[in-house]
Amino acid sequence: MNRYADQVAVITGAGRGIGRAIALRLAAEGARVAVISRTAVNAQIVAEELTKQYSQQALPYSVDVADGDAVANLCSKIVKDFGTISVLVNNAGITRDRLSMRMSGEDWDRVLDTNLKGAFHFVQHLQRHMMRNSYGRIVNISSVSGLLGQAGQVNYSASKAGLIGLTKALAREVSGRNVTVNAVAPGFIQTDMTQNLPESVKADVLKLIPLERFGDCEDVAAAVAFIASPEAKYITGQVIKVDGGMAM
Ligand code: NDP
Fold this sequence. Notes:
Elements: E1 8-11, H1 17-28, E2 32-37, H2 40-54, E3 58-62, H3 68-82, E4 87-90, H4 105-133, E5 136-141, H5 144-148, H6 154-174, E6 179-186, H7 192-195, H8 199-207, H9 217-227, E7 239-242
Parallel strand pairs: 1-2, 1-4, 2-3, 4-5, 5-6, 6-7
Helix pairs in contact: 1-2, 1-9, 3-4, 4-6
Bound molecules: NADPH dihydro-nicotinamide-adenine-dinucleotide phosphate (NDP).
NADPH dihydro-nicotinamide-adenine-dinucleotide phosphate (NDP) binds next to helix 1 and helix 7.
């Protein structure tokens, strides 16, 4: 399939984990990719991997998505470098888990500023471009934690629930210009983010998953590759769960 021929995808948090898998998947289907991460070297490695494997333009960028001014400058640069933008995947995210009574204001702010406001920053600058082109796909990576709530994650769950609200409101704002906005809510996916959780926690989570396994980054990438493709043209404002049935 070459669903992304002639398309440019901007993917945040693409230096590792789920974001990297999304970058690889979209590039495999023909996309040119702006690979964004916080750490320059991670973006560099993935961009080189994409160029080598798929011989398509892939450029690395590093930014703190929570920094609005830096994101504004970066978006201008990306538009200049690629000429057009058709897909935005807001995937960058962090956790700072702690029970709410012990959570610092700083941990609350950092998670909300990265996971929720970071997405807003990219949306604000790139939606204009999509609307002008009368085509766009925006995908926000939420989480089942945003749907179900997770003890120890009031900041993270709030940020991911907030992304769902952002998704639905924005979907209504931009629908007239052929721009769709959807959220993908992964369950438990094996990445750096989850690998250090205690084994007892992992065993408890596994019991809640009807498909009896944790997800892979590629499981999420496959869902994003569909929802961000031209053929998903009649789907907007939705939350697609990729969770092995955990939150059904
Ligand atoms: P990882 O921790 O493996 O990777 C996170 C990525 O986000 C990295 O590339 C990192 O950059 C980037 N990032 C983090 N903070 C910032 C920032 N301030 N500015 C720019 N980039 C930043 O996470 P996952 O791959 O597991 O998660 C990806 C997304 O999926 C997140 O939004 C997460 O909340 C969500 N998710 C994950 C689940 C899971 O089970 N793993 C479940 C549900 C949702 P760098 O490489 O430079 O550090």
